Structure formats: C-alpha cells, structure tokens
Amino acid sequence: MCCCCFGGLCSDFCGAISFAFCTRFRRCETDDAIFFRASVPGLTAEDLHVQVEDTQKYRILQIIGQRNKRKATGDGVASTETTSSGQFVKVYKLPRTKILVDEVRAEVDENGVITITIPRDPSS
Questions:
Q1: InterPro entries, from UniProt (predicted)?
Q2: What is the pLDDT of residue 3?
Q3: What CATH number does residue 100 fall under?
Q4: Number of domains composing the chain
Q5: Would 1 be classed as within a structural domain?
Q6: Is residue 3 part of a domain?
Q7: Whole domain around residue 70: which residue ranges?
Q8: Residues with Cβ within 8 Å of residue 6, at least 6 apart in sequence
Q9: DSSP letter string, 61-105
Q10: Looking at the domain assignment, is residue 54 inside a domain?
Q11: pLDDT means per 10 residues in the chain (124 residues)?
C-alpha cells in the first residue's frame, strides 16, 4: 500500500503499513530552505515525529503522525465511550548535500497546520 500523496519514495520505504488517515503535504523550495506543510487537525507536536535519515542511496525526510482520540458521552443513566486512532507515515527524498540537517524545524500551529523547515547551506 502506498500512501505518499506527494511523489515521495513510498514504494522503497513504507512497505505494507496500514493507514487510518492520509495527509497531503505540500513542498515548496526557496533559495534559503525547503518547506513541507500540511493540515493535521487534532494533532499536536507531541503526536508527530519528524526525522532526517541518511541511507546509502538517499537522504530522506520521514514524518510520522499518530492520532488517538477518546470521547465519552453520557446522560447519567447510560454512557458510551468512542475511541478512534490512526497513523500516517510520509517519506520524501531530500538532496544529499546543500541542506542543514541539524537545523530542521517542525512546528504545529493552533489551527493544526504543520510546517517543516529544512534550511539550505548558504556556503554551497
């Protein structure tokens, strides 16, 4: 199953992972940085894991999001509890050079939008 909604390397890295929800990331590049942005409503920074990893062939950006929601309702006599969960994994190919891996930043704003900033090396 391939879940990379934006031309990533899913077939090489994701394998057979079950996804409960899919998030579409947009990629934008400037002279100063590469940006990835997506709407992840209901998720917080603690629900997301972002890492840059080197393999023999590629430098990759991996984004993992985990959603766990629990909702309880009741009228005093009867109550119900609903839980839902899901995970997404996104993998994108990055340049092997010209980026500052140690300065990658990921932020989630109050509207549930994640922005990942990968600065470019100004000396290259």
A1: A-crystallin/Hsp20_dom, HSP20-like_chaperone, Small_HSP
A2: 36
A3: 2.60.40.790
A4: 1
A5: no
A6: no
A7: 10-119
A8: 24, 25, 26, 27, 90, 92
A9: EEEEEEEEEEEEEE-SS-EEEEEEEEEEEEEEEE-SSSB-GGG-E
A10: yes
A11: 36 39 83 92 85 85 82 74 77 87 90 92 82
